[in-house]
Amino acid sequence: MTETVLMKVEGDIAVLTLNRPEKLNALNYQMVDRLLSLLDLIEEDPAIRVVILTGAGERAFSAGGDIPEFSESIKRGAEVAVKAFVRRGQTMTARMEAFGKPIIAAVNGIAFGGGCEITEAVHLAIASDRALFAKPEINIGIPPTFGGTQRLPRLAGRKRALELLLTGDSFGPERAYELGLVNQVVPHQDLLPQSFALARRIIRHSPLAAHRIISAVTRGLNTTIAEGLTIESEQFARMAVTQDTREGLDAWIARRSPVYSGS
Q1: FRET label pair with 24: which of 183, 227, 239, 252, CA 20 to 30 Å apart?
Q2: 8 Å CB contact between 184 and 152
């Protein structure tokens, strides 16, 4: 049986590939569960420092939720659909958002619905110039369910997000860049090389510091500035006692390159 998500490790970078190209990498329940399992494995492996997430085939990153599958859950009632579909998808995007290692989405094509919500949730994203985004859930009579009504307004602003959510209109990679949904737009053939280059720019630093930064940003976004500053202080305090901090300071004073141990 073909795996719905492929995993390949290249040095200290894990590449996860959504692997249902014949279905435009639609997110069925099996795929979401597989993604969560692989993230658990990656989290436990200290040798893996960064995750790159992309889609198989030439057409799509992910076209969103598997409509025939979740429509069957809806037919069984709202309670069933919320448990099987909504909570599963929200668990996935929340896991990505708070994941302790940087996740880079390499958006290689269509990123509709849940595919767009993954892009919103991960830490960084690079889009191919062939990428196409949309929040099309309104076209089938539902609101977004994997966090799209919450994360997109935080990224793009309330009115710009509502325009996309209420019209269902698609938008290109340059618009996604303007909205803060992606960090870069690159020629299609450069998508993975540029994603690896970004990963390597991160890997040169302490993995513990990266984790503390992600934690501070993720936890602080939904708090007041005062509460966020407390979170930032807590993350600094947890980092200050580590060998990596001592190594970083010693290396800077000695004008040499640091060698981090992740401890």
Answers
A1: 183
A2: no
Q: Establish whether 137 is a catalytic residue.
A: yes
pLDDT value at residue 1: 67
Give, in order, the Cα–Cα distances in Å from 6 to each of 2, 27, 105. 9, 14, 15
**Is the CB of residue 138 less than 8 Å from the CB of residue 157?**
no
List C-alpha distances in Å: 205 to 10, 141, 184, 202, 226.
18, 46, 21, 6, 28
DSSP single-letter state for residue 131: -
Q: What would the pLDDT profile of 187-205 be if each residue is shown by its tens digit?
A: 999 999 999 999 999 999 9
- pTM, entire model: 0.95
pLDDT beneath 70, residues of the chain: 1
CA angle 260, 43, 27 (to 5 degrees): 135
Query: Which listed residue (137, 163, 227, 234) is catalytic?
Result: 137
Beta bridge partners of 170: 134
Q: What is the rounded CA–CA span in Å between residue 112 and residue 168?
A: 10
pLDDT at 161: 98
Amino acid at 248: G
Catalytic residue among 43, 69, 97, 117: 117
